[in-house]
Amino acid sequence: METTRRRPQHSANGKRSEQKEQLAQWGRAWEVDWFSLISVIGLLCFAPFIVFYFVMACDQYECSITQPVLDLYQGEATLLSIWARAPSFSWSAAKIYAVWVSFQVFLYMCFPDITHKFIPGYVGGVQEGARTPAGLINKYEINGLQCWLITHALWFANAHYFHWFSPTIIFDNWIPLLWCTNILGYAVSTFAFIKAHLFPTNAEDCKFTGNIFYNYMMGIEFNPRIGKWFDFKLFFNGRPGIVAWTLINLSYMAKQQELYGYITNSMILVNVLQAIYVLDFFWNEAWYLKTIDICHDHFGWYLGWGDCVWLPYLYTLQGLYLVYHPVQLSDAHALAVLLLGLVGYYIFRSTNHQKDLFRRTEGSCSIWGRKPTWIECTYRSADGGMHRSKLLTSGFWGVARHFNYTGDLMGSLAYCASCGFGHMLPYFYIVYMTILLVHRCVRDEHRCSSKYGKDWKRYTDAVPSRLIPGVF
Ligand code: NDP
């Protein structure tokens, strides 16, 4: 168990929360080692340029990620000449982005969910999140599916009826929009950082490591809010990034049609597979309240900038690539990709569903036609309370400890393989997702081990593999 002390905070009853420091330390890291610190500073300085590099490589080098380096090496280009050739900030892009974000805030705040009243099986409206390390249970207004539906209905109404703007608008402003997303990403992270010091929503759930860079990047406040309902994590995690994901792909598809007069099967595959993933996200938004992003991560640059910039730009690289390289796949290739994507999605969803069902029913359910098996655990929250929990050891959770990540990775590989094998750029996504999910796996297991102690050890003895049985 880590031993660093929590920065003293005054709680509502005047006592210092320092008194509770030893009670629950299973949230985010308290100590920052040198390796983490160097990585954090490196990411804060260079991550925007990584995103720029990929988009610029498509714009100037037809999506070759090696050619810019070769040109620089051979003296045919300089960093300044590459920068000068890239479209710059534009006020028209700023207006588009301001309208987009304001519209998403408007939908999020002003339209309480009604879809759950008429879509059978959908869980929306006011829902509870998981217990925080301080022992709180937050309420959330779940209306992501409704926002996604309204936004996409308007998009199609515009494309086919109103013609207020071209459906290629996103592609046509892609690099100028990168400036705007970065401005919002850094602004919201900086605001969250200042807010955590001056007026945190819940001081008991703040974490200060003593390292300013780490605090800025990984966040201090657990659930920053403005007012009762504007929850930073829920808003930025899902919208404007994930609602935009499918619109960005549609804009790429429209651009392909405009440039070549046809749409390739690869573009359709990317649009369909990623739309399934996005719709799954909104259909299960209430369930996402119990995932690591919402119930364990604090809100800082990692989530704020990541949701505004990294996600919309790098999760959509396949569609962007296909605008420059309209690959038409053979039927066999297309079918194989579709199967890989659907099987991956099935594993991802079923694994997540099994855990959700098991936790909701406290084990009174059937998994793969049998009564589930589990390990009983206890843990302590910062208010001193002892709680009980269960770790499932049957179904996909008996195959590996994070088989949901394995399914996610299969789906990610399918997006990349939709683009054929001509360039490396579309494969960045699977490389990135592998690093993200392996790192997440290690991070999560470290947290679970601190939370559950010897009970976690019993679980890892019962289910020894993390992602691939017998391999890792
Ligand atoms: P999980 O849904 O796997 O949640 C991990 C948590 O579940 C643990 O912290 C623990 O929490 C609990 N848990 C662990 N083992 C068990 C068990 N055997 N039985 C019951 N509960 C258990 O992880 P994530 O939140 O990271 O991921 C959710 C989904 O989102 C995944 O499918 C992932 O692939 C996807 N994802 C996608 C990303 C993307 O960018 N596309 C990014 C991140 C995630 P507790 O404290 O409650 O015990």
UniProtKB/TrEMBL annotation:
Domain of life: Eukaryota
Membrane topology, record value: Multi-pass membrane protein
Gene Ontology annotations of biological process type: brassinosteroid biosynthetic process; cholesterol biosynthetic process
EC class of the enzyme, as a word: oxidoreductase
Localization annotation: Endoplasmic reticulum membrane
Residue stretches spanning the membrane: 34-55, 259-279, 299-317, 329-348, 412-438
Function of the protein: Catalyzes the last step of the cholesterol synthesis pathway, which transforms cholesta-5,7-dien-3beta-ol (7-dehydrocholesterol,7-DHC) into cholesterol by reducing the C7-C8 double bond of its sterol core. Can also metabolize cholesta-5,7,24-trien-3beta-ol (7-dehydrodemosterol, 7-DHD) to desmosterol, which is then metabolized by the Delta(24)-sterol reductase (DHCR24) to cholesterol.
Protein family (similarity comment): Belongs to the ERG4/ERG24 family.
Protein name: 7-dehydrocholesterol reductase
Organism: Haplochromis burtoni (Burton's mouthbrooder)
Taxonomic lineage: Eukaryota, Metazoa, Chordata, Craniata, Vertebrata
